[in-house]
Design goal:
This protein is of the alpha+beta class. It contains 15 helices and twelve strands. It binds magnesium ion (MG). The site of magnesium ion (MG) has 5 residues, from strand 1.
């Protein structure tokens, strides 16, 4: 049976909350972020209202640039506590419809409502009910994508903002994807874009014309990934806390290294990230993992199971450092290190919140980029730099 997945994204969330709290801001360009200091401010735009967008202001833009484009805008610092509270209330609405809610950020989530359709109607109807509840109870709007998987639902939610509702019917997937720009492909970061550019690919439909063997020849194991996405295939589950199996972080060195101090620093940094994420999720695990890739791409993974579960950075680091010392072939250059923890038990007594679960989806994107850099990396980057240098002459 086909799954029914919703991607729900609040519209200009922080700015919309401010406009709701302060009616005098309605209809005005509201820009939430760093202090612009009359154009001399540092930092970036966090969110802006739709009224600010015609001036060319968008999120992640330097605040000084936003000020140049829209000096009469209303600039406000973020009120994190308020946004969090509102976010929790919105997520409570999602939980009325399904337990399978995966938060992506404070204002964005995937919902698997496959099991809810008998009770609440089809995907589109559930999306309408949720949108209505958000407007009625919180005077805010959301845009929703409805599809048979996360990737398509996420693209769909973005196509008709604000207050959008876009459904991708299972028999209309190819038509839906064919004219979309290739930048909408999940995981298509800068490196990937450059390769597609070289291939003359502008739309997802153009990529879909490549047979699988051609793509695997060109991209290695990523070929299958791109093939699937070009055809709208995505098997990823909506991951709730209950099905998180491991927490891990990796680092690819800009330059392969055999300097022990650098390697140990990196392991410590990775252990710190993993420990932080475990603590945030209220998880503790027994098995510590090391991943070690040498400059010739030979990769080993080793693990050690501890007598007790841990979420402690120092214990994770000590264990992974021990694994490294036991297994490292002295003098060889290292390309990539990874640290992970699995074998979870929920730490007792801790109340779960949605924020325990906000997962670094970007990690996975970064991993895809890492794979590309592994394969094409320096080559692609230096090629682009050379081009720039020539142009600047
Ligand atoms: Mg949003």
């Amino acid at each position: 049976m086909a799954r029914v997945i919703l991607h729900i994204d609040m519209d200009a969330f922080f700015a919309a909350v401010e406009q709701r709290e302060h009616p005098e801001l309605k209809g005005k360009p509201v820009i939430i972020g760093a202090d612009p200091k009359e154009g001399k401010g540092r930092g970036v735009v966090s969110t802006c209202s739709y009224e600010a967008r015609p001036f060319g202001v968008h999120s992640a833009m330097p605040i000084s640039e936003a000020y140049r484009k829209c000096p009469h805008g209303i600039y406000l610092p973020p009120n994190g506590k308020l946004y969090r509270q509102v976010s929790e209330n919105i997520f409570d609405i999602y939980n009325r419809y399904t337990d399978a809610v995966e938060p992506l950020s404070i204002d964005e989530a995937f919902l698997d409502v496959t099991g809810s359709t008998r009770l609440f109607g089809e995907g589109r109807q559930i999306a309408e009910q949720i949108k209505d509840a958000i407007v009625r109870e919180h005077r805010l709007t959301a845009s929703v994508g409805v599809a048979c998987n996360k990737y398509l639902a996420k693209i769909a939610s973005d196509l008709d903002k604000p207050d959008g509702l876009v459904e991708v019917a299972p028999d209309a997937i190819d038509a839906f994807l064919s004219d979309l720009h290739i930048s909408r492909l999940w995981g298509a970061g800068k490196q990937t874009q450059k390769i597609f550019q070289h291939m003359g690919i502008k739309t997802i439909g153009q990529l879909a014309r490549y047979p699988l063997p051609t793509l695997t020849h060109k991209f290695g194991k990523l070929g299958q990934h791109f093939y699937n996405l070009a055809h709208g295939i995505d098997e990823r589950e909506v991951s709730t806390l209950a099905n998180v199996k491991s927490v891990s972080n990796e680092h690819t060195f800009g330059q392969d290294t055999n300097v022990i101090a650098t390697i140990e620093n990196t392991l410590f940094h990775l252990a710190g990230k993993v420990g932080y994420r475990l603590r945030k999720k209220g998880l503790a695990g027994k098995t510590i993992h090391l991943k070690l890739r040498y400059d010739n791409f030979n990769t080993i993974t080793r693990n050690k199971t501890l007598p007790k579960t841990t979420d402690n950075t120092q214990i994770i680091y000590d264990t992974v450092k021990w694994l490294f010392e036991q297994n490292y072939q002295s003098g060889r250059k290292v390309r990539l290190l990874g640290v992970g923890v699995s074998g979870f038990e929920q730490k007792g007594g801790k109340q779960k919140t949605i924020f325990d679960m906000i997962d670094e989806k970007n990690d996975r994107l970064n991993q895809i980029e890492d794979l590309l850099v592994d394969r094409y990396g320096d080559n692609i980057i230096s090629r682009a730099e050379n081009l720039n240098r020539k142009r600047n002459k």
